[in-house]
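Support request, priority: normal
Reporter: lab tech (M.K.)
Component: structure prediction queue

Hi team, I submitted a job for alcohol dehydrogenase from Arabidopsis suecica yesterday, and the status page still shows it as pending. I've pasted the exact input below so you can check whether something in the sequence is tripping the parser. The sequence length should be 388 residues. Please let me know if I need to resubmit or if it's stuck on your end.
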Amino acid sequence: MDKASISSTEGKPIRCKAAILRKAGEPLVIEEIQVDPPQAYEVRIKILCTSLCHTDVTFSKLESGPLARFPRILGHEAVGVVESIGENVDGFKQGDVVLPVFHPQCEECKECKSPKSNWCTRYTNDFLSNTRRYGMTSRFKDSFGKDIHHFIFVSSFTEYTVVDIAHLVKISPEIPVDIAALLSCGVATGIGAAWKVADVEEGSTVAIFGLGAVGLAVAEGVRLRGAAKIIGVDLNPAKFEIGKRYGITDFVNPALCGEKKISEVIREMTGGGADYSFECIGLASLMEEAFNSTRPGSGKTVILGMEQKALPVSLGSYDLLRGRTICGTLFGGLKPKLDIPILVDRYLKKELNLDGLITHELSFEEINKAFDLLAEGNSIRCIIWMDK
Ligand code: NAD
Ligand code: ZN
Ligand code: ZN
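Reply from support: The job had stalled in the queue. We restarted it manually and it finished. Here are the results:
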């Protein structure tokens, strides 16, 4: 963005295009909206490109319950450039390249200061407000002057958005912006789960349920840790080809397991159970299968998938007594401000393989096609360019 365009909009509302979800399950509608200037501790950013993560698809279908809100601007995997900053904003200035991240890091609470988890206790318990600092207040208005809901503190399906600094990471402008977008959710989550949550060690056997961007990033993470056998589970055989490029050594198609449960097949393939399993789909039944695939005594299951109907998981109590562990994670246990720059650096040093994850590119006007592509399993990540 050039200096003149920055100074002409700073402190004023911006009128721009946004893709709005007005009703569950319906296509997004591109409308002109007003984006208010950032308040204290907020930054207004111009989105350069955004991609679609399965969580956007899940929320677009959510008809009711506290997490369903309309009208709403979805989108949370994106990269942008700072257009203007609110009061009390340190560390960001106009023109900075930034990643908005749904998961917060206030940098001040006990957990943010501890290496044990990424569960920022100051902000993480609240998924029901529009902005964590200001509750339900919105920075977006439609052409009738009505508020539009934000989405998980990012809302990237708009030319401009306003994000709290607890959700913003400054990154090196050297990384290609489309790759950077992937690091703002799915890919960072997968790699983080392998490194920070499971802490996979050399020679391990691993089962990954779901080979979308999240599952393939888990594969990259465990490959870099030296996993010996990486089993990919997916209904879509097209995912097996790219899976091989991500170090996946064996594949299980649940449709071809016959009478056997997936967990039985994996226990046979691993001589008693995988050391680690990761669920990257979002189905309670497969979370149970992932748990049952691991080795008694020491097996560990990490749940990354967001259950598509918020269903509970049922585990055999005796199976738990066998010493397996299971946990879930948001954003792969990563502290965004600390860990995303590390991932960017490793990508720039060519230590991180993210080839082939971007399968499609579309203009903003075509955003609904990106939903169809992902929901039908025909894309891994589709980049939506705001200026094309
Ligand atoms: P995706 O749609 O790209 O990938 C899902 C994969 O699962 C696809 O390859 C699909 O073919 C496969 N699949 C679907 N149903 C299956 C079944 N019954 N059996 C076997 N394979 C099946 O999704 P994604 O963007 O990679 O996201 C994966 C999950 O991770 C979603 O639930 C998403 O909401 C969640 N997610 C969680 C976090 C987090 O912080 N925990 C972050 C990002 C995404
Ligand atoms: Zn915190
Ligand atoms: Zn996501």
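The pocket of zinc ion (ligand 2) is lined by residues 105-106, 108-109, 111-112, 120, 122 (CB under 6 Å). Residues 336-348 form the longest helix (13 residues). Let us know if anything else looks off. Ticket resolved.
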